[in-house]
Amino acid sequence: MKMIARIAGAALLAATVASSAQAAGEGRVEVRGGIAWFNGFGASGSEAVIGVAGGYDFDLGDTVFAGVEGSADKVLATGSEVLWGVGGRLGAKVGDSTRLYVAGGLGFGGGDTSPYGGVGVQQKFGGNFYGKIEYRRYFDIIDVNTAAVGVGLTF
């Protein structure tokens, strides 16, 4: 439970700092797909996963940004539920088109709550379109990891 509070607190702090500075930024929406793999309770395996996300990134200067995000991800296995997420990210802007970041937040689904942490890279393709690659690890009773690629639009 302490881990959940720390991750949620860090995401809230990043959003508060960015909001109080009234920094400029941009909204984003995306679709993504990839793989989830798990190990625990005597079982292991992998399944495909698809999802959507939306968020807002606040510019905190020429090289730093902080963002908030809401997401919905579905493991494509019979009986699996949608994993809803709320979190934040903090990262570095590399040039005009690349963002490297760390992410953290909480996932909710099937009556369970699980904190997560991850890393990613987002690359603009031109105009308002971007692609990204992201890894997440969910810190729950069962060990779950995801790796996904996504495409999106900034506004």
General description of the model:
By secondary structure, the chain is mainly β. The protein has a single domain, classed as Porin (Beta Barrel). 12% of the residues lie in helices and 70% in strands. It is built from 1 helix and 8 strands, in the order αββββββββ. An 8-stranded antiparallel barrel has the order 1-2-3-4-5-6-7-8.
Quick summary of this structure?
The chain is mainly beta and 155 residues long. It has one helix at 2-20; strands at 25-40, 43-59, 64-75, 82-94, 98-109, 112-126, 129-139, 143-154.
Question: In percent, how helical is the residue content?
Answer: 10-25%
What percentage of amino acids are in beta strands?
A: over 45%
Shape: elongated
**First CA to last CA: what distance?**
36 Å
Q: How many discrete domains? A: 1
CATH fold group: Porin
Radius of gyration: 15 Å
| Average predicted confidence as pLDDT | 87
Number of strands: 8
Number of helices: 1
What is the strand and helix layout of this fold?
Blueprint: H1 2-20, E1 25-40, E2 43-59, E3 64-75, E4 82-94, E5 98-109, E6 112-126, E7 129-139, E8 143-154
Antiparallel strand pairs: 1-2, 1-8, 2-3, 3-4, 4-5, 5-6, 6-7, 7-8
Tags for this model:
155 residues; mainly beta
